[in-house]
Automatic annotation (TrEMBL):
Region listing for Disordered, in residue ranges: 72-103
Places the protein is found: Nucleus
InterPro entries assigned: Fun_TF (IPR021858), Zn2-C6_fun-type_DNA-bd_sf (IPR036864), Zn2Cys6_DnaBD (IPR001138)
Keywords, ordered alphabetically: Nucleus
Domain Zn(2)-C6 fungal-type: 39-69
Coiled-coil positions: none
Name of the protein in question: Fungal-specific transcription factor domain-containing protein
Organism: Colletotrichum navitas
């Protein structure tokens, strides 16, 4: 045995000096340059070689996956932005904490029951899998065990609650926001704050979740201050327009955060007021074709701003009653939203109806100023009656959006019908100091509630994404309930969803306070405003 081993070793030593006689390596196929790292995000997350064919690479096309590309502009300078570096550095400062089994089960169940129409087909659903399972590039690689659950929550649950309509572009909160967040720490902090705030709302007893979410929120505010002060650049580019888009994106993400966490101090009004000065130039540019590489982001931001501004303009403000929402002139016609591919993801119905809101809001503010001046004669009733007449004769089916991937006509018409009736009630409340003093008007409102309740339930049971636009009209209708079965129906509807964001929960709480208050002033939209002032709160129904 020993002799055989020695012979084998000596034979191996002799063969080491022999030349290689195998097949030659095909040197003509060998790369003489470093392999590119600019492939699509889908291939990067799956750790696959991407041939970088746009718009859909070969591998994604073969596997039937959605090919997602970064939509960022190259910075004019070689240095990274301070906001990005600060955001990355802040992602690993919290102590590790594992996500609970119940939390994972809740996230999984919500993802499985989410409407597939929001994601637009199975391709987008498949594309989310690598984003969830492999976080290996950009700021995603910086996520620790504390931040990762917030990202998972945003990706698997929160993004489906944010979209309020169908569109051929899929879910912009995934397809537009996440590629930017993967390369920018400030935007990633906004994403993590939104996901963390939603987790905190769903598990209010876990104070650690709130601490983590507030930490990301604080870093986002600090990063935004540096950008506004010129101490940090924009990942989108250094041009003036690029910085405007960047600031608007961060501010609107903060507005979304306030809605998710259910802010009752009116912070969303301040964010929206700061956004206004940057939005007007973007809206002006949308009137003509633009070669700008981030044009689709413009439409995404303008539609979010439009919905927030219009809804807040007609929402009772409570303790912020002396701070009205100023609406931009371009909101009087929403035809400009149709210029973008993402049209309909937030406002997927009734663009003509929503175009009347600036006129309604202006009339109600004038009526409020008239009430403050007790000696001024009323000169606004003619405009009030004219608006009510126009709303009563409004044809919902003539005001539907046409296009691929949008909600069906009957869903759009139903949503517009609910909103139209709520606007009529809101106008009645503005021009009557106490609705209960007008029995005929109360009877008319009860008839409208009887007609709208089945439509609201049909929306919820049908899982239409348009139902997420129904919070404002449901609040107005619920505030006028005087019958017990109406109250029970709205109470059940406002509290039925265990994954509802904070804005829904706070709205349900304010409406409950209204129902429990025995004061005759606690009725209708005026009663909502009175109750919020009484309790020192100001909710944001958007």
């Amino acid at each position: 045995m020993m002799a055989t081993s020695v012979r084998t070793i000596s034979l191996a030593e002799e063969q080491q000096g022999l030349p290689y006689r195998g097949a030659r390596f095909p040197s003509k196929f060998r790369r003489n340059f470093p392999r590119s790292k600019e492939g699509c995000l889908t291939c990067r997350t799956r750790r696959k070689k991407c041939d970088e064919v746009k718009p859909d690479c070969t591998l994604c096309r073969r596997s039937g996956r959605e090919c997602s590309w970064p939509v960022i502009a190259k910075s004019d300078g070689p240095e990274e932005t301070t906001a990005s570096s600060n955001g990355k550095a802040g992602l690993q400062k919290e102590p590790a904490k594992e996500i609970s089994h119940s939390r994972r089960r809740l996230m999984q169940s919500d993802f499985e029951t989410a409407s597939p129409a929001v994601v637009v087909g199975s391709k987008a659903t498949k594309a989310m899998s690598p984003l969830r399972s492999s976080l290996t590039f950009g700021t995603l690689s910086q996520l620790d065990e504390v931040s990762r659950p917030s990202y998972e929550q945003y990706l698997a649950v929160t993004t489906f609650l944010l979209v309020r309509g169908r569109t051929s572009e899929g879910n912009p909160f995934i397809n537009y926001v996440l590629p930017l967040a993967a390369s920018d720490g400030l935007i990633m902090d906004c994403v993590l704050a939104i996901g963390g705030a939603h987790m905190s709302v769903l598990d209010a007893k876990n104070r650690q979740l709130e601490v983590v979410a507030r930490g990301h929120y604080a870093r986002a505010l600090a990063g935004l201050r540096k950008v506004l002060a010129g101490q940090a650049g924009s990942t989108l580019g250094n041009a003036v327009e690029d910085k405007q888009v960047y600031v608007v994106l961060v501010l609107l993400l903060l507005c979304i955060l306030e809605g998710i966490q259910g802010d009752v101090n009116g912070a969303v009004y301040h964010h929206l007021r700061a956004t206004r000065q940057y939005v007007a130039p973007l809206a002006a540019k949308s009137r003509r074709p633009s070669p700008h590489k981030l044009q689709h982001i413009h439409g995404f931001l303008l539609e979010i701003y439009t919905v927030f501004a219009l809804e807040l303009a007609i929402t009772p403000r409570g303790k912020l009653d002396d701070q009205p929402v100023d609406l931009d002139p371009f909101l009087e016609s929403l035809a400009f939203l149709g210029e973008y591919k993402s049209c309909g993801f937030m406002l997927g119905f009734g663009h003509g109806l929503f175009g009347m809101i600036p006129e309604i809001a202006k009339l109600i503010e004038a009526r409020r100023a008239e009430n403050l001046d007790k000696e001024a004669p009323s000169s606004l009733y003619q405009s009030y009656r004219s608006l009510v007449s126009r709303l009563n004769s409004w044809d919902e089916f003539a005001d539907v959006l046409e296009g691929d991937g949008l909600s069906p006509r009957y869903e759009q018409a139903t949503a517009a019908n609910i909103y139209r009736n709520a606007l009529i009630i809101y106008l009645h409340a503005a021009f009557h100091d106490n609705l209960l003093d007008s029995p005929e008007l109360v009877a008319e409102i009860e008839v409208r509630i009887d007609k709208m309740l089945p439509l609201c339930w049909a929306f919820y049971s049908g899982k239409s994404p348009l139902r997420r636009m129904m919070l404002w009209p449901v609040m107005v209708l619920a505030s006028c309930c005087s019958k017990r079965h109406h109250v029970e129906a709205f109470r059940y509807g406002l509290n039925i969803n265990p994954r509802a964001p904070g804005a829904v929960r706070e709205t349900a709480r304010v409406v409950q306070l209204l129902w429990e208050d025995k004061d005759p002033r606690a009725f209708g939209p005026r009663g909502l405003d009175w109750v919020m002032k009484k309790h020192g709160i100001s909710i944001s129904v958007c």
